[in-house]
């Protein structure tokens, strides 16, 4: 059954690997879309050994009866080739001018803007992509997102809840080490933000702030003029000494109250964890995000 796609059509990109427990719910979400243009679902099966293909074939009939074109590809090699490869293949076999990414159960975590919320033009994907195909342990979505920003891409936020995001023990998310994500994020911070600042303050004299300081290259670390915090015990101590530094004398970075600190700030405090206290403190300084501060955590 053929469905000619119009200019306002979208291709839903769905990589699948052993997703049997979640596929019905995933495919039902496609079937229930209220998008007014035409929809194409591009599924790529990455060597699934469970009943994923049986479920996909069952839903293919129902989806196409409702006017949604279903394109199915895949391979049956002994081992999967990874998230990046599967997404690239699903994009390549699709035909819509716009791409909407959907995960059946298999995703990598990392960026603040999580992968299944992405919607972009095919032309832009071709300009930025493809996804890294390094396989297990590679945060292909984070790397793509950084390349998107490097090439002048922006982000538009929709202030509605449009997605249910599932974590489960066998998700590919868990194959990406937290240290890998951290390393990529620090390097991107040093590449894109810190060159614009002569000095900066790390907001958080606790574990995360100190970890960021230790992770910086020596040149970036030399720009840190202080840590700031609200914890009187940390402030009373007066400074943080980087004991493992090869520099002599070892760096001693002052710890001050946030009101005594000077911007710009790299903020290593997670949002929504202090009952609004941190957010109120930040707002009270009347700073401009991007110029006076950046969120890192």
Structure, described:
With 297 residues, the protein is of the alpha/beta class. 32% of the residues lie in helices and 18% in strands. It has ten helices and eleven strands. It has a six-stranded mixed β-sheet. Strand 10, helix 10 and strand 11 form a beta-alpha-beta unit. Helix 1 runs parallel beside helix 2. The relative contact order is 0.10. About 2% of the residues have low confidence.
| N/C terminus separation | 48 Å
Low-confidence stretches: 106-112
Q: Helical amount among residues, as a percent range?
A: 25-40%
From the alpha carbons, calculate the radius of gyration and give it in angstroms: 23 Å
Outline the biggest β-sheet: 6 strands, mixed
Short description:
The chain is α/β, with parallel strands linked by helices. Helix content is 32%, strand content 18%. The N and C termini lie far apart (48 Å).
Give the topology, please.
Blueprint: E1 10-16, H1 20-31, E2 39-46, H2 52-65, E3 69-75, H3 83-93, E4 98-101, E5 119-121, H4 122-128, H5 140-150, H6 178-192, E6 200-203, H7 207-215, H8 218-221, E7 224-229, H9 232-237, E8 239-241, E9 252-257, E10 265-267, H10 277-283, E11 293-295
Parallel strand pairs: 1-2, 1-4, 2-3, 6-7, 6-10, 7-9, 10-11
Antiparallel strand pairs: 4-5, 8-9
Helix pairs in contact: 1-2, 5-6
